[in-house]
Amino acid sequence: MVCGKPLRFNAKKLGIHLTTAFYWRHKVLCAIRAKGFDSLAGIMESDETYILESHKGHRNIEAVFGRKPRRSGGKAMKRGISKEQVCVLVAQDRQGHVLFQVGGMGRIDFSAIGAILGSYASGMTTLCTDAEAKYRKFAKEAGVDHQEISARAGVRVKRGIFHIQYVNAHHSRLKLWIRQFHGMATRWADNYLSWFRFMDKHGQLDRAEVIHQMLVSSCAVSGNFPVAALKPQKGRGLFHRAPESP
Can you give the residue range of the structural domain that contains 21? Predict the structure, then answer.
């Protein structure tokens, strides 16, 4: 996982079945994800990016979703941002604490912004975003100072401190990292985001130390992630929600 090797390679290397390798991968990711995020506070910046939805691994895409399977990730049928795109909201404070979370399909709405950033509002002093009105509304209702950064107007930094450059850099690295999977299954999006966040945080360390950190992180929280909870179930919805840790 640290080296980004595919499941078939991992299964062969460990002498286990491909399905077992899949469940082991997601048990590790569910455990890392269950640790949650560090508390964000002070000056925060937030922006969203979009990734093409994928039903990779589904055996009957055409019958269930009404379209032919894409090859190696493929392209959206519609131009621009649509319901074919998974919205990923990224936020970071000036202490380097980062949050990655799925915000739904298509353009993010006000309720999704509130659900993701609302719990951090009490410690937030300033929220830096683009000129999207939904962020402006959230900041007003949360009683937080809001600084709009309008790249279209040629403004990238205000007063030398307010910008969204850190989260935009995360967007670029995330999309580059996802390419190695040739399509990321949408139902596992939050798990993959936890994986990327871990590697982005620890990737500069020695490889042996990164492996050690991943092992420690996956054991740091007491959790129950049975195989049955990871299998597809009717009524679960588009995204997989990992069972909560006790």
Answer: 1-35+207-246
